[in-house]
Sequence to fold (184 residues):
Amino acid sequence: MIQKGKQPGKSSEGLDRSWHLARTPVEVDVAEIEYALMRANQAFERWQTECLASVIDFAASGEENAMLHIIRMNDRPKSIKDLARLANREDIPNMQYSLRKLIAAGLVAREGSGRAGVTYSVTDLGREITDRYAEVRGTLLVEAIESVPNFPQRLEEATRTLELLTGIYEQVARVAATHRRTYR
Fold:
């Protein structure tokens, strides 16, 4: 954080924190959290891919892995509309591609029809794989988190902050879409 009275883009340590996106100290902080979110997202997706690869020989993206776990969540079948809402996604064609991939791997089953409603649930193999994933996750990730003093408590605050940011980004995205310019 930049302290009051400091020049935007300059820290008290003399580091250059300037961004083309930032003209004020608050804009610098926003740019830095966005950059941190981008890096965290890439690291998280890489973790998901590698953790899943450690329990099954199946090439899945981080989003496909997340979809598998969301389908398993609460051990209830989910529609594509449920999956989109739970994952905060709108890219239905990409989600359908991922679902076909998970079905082809034998991890997910499709039930119902277009008229009656299609739902997705994990198969017995999907349940076994997500259970093994949870074991690896507990051994590697959770143990690493628990080894950092006060980190579990910091995660609670981070979760609340990310949920708040999600709401803010959703709102400003709607405003931006409402006032979008037409380019010719």
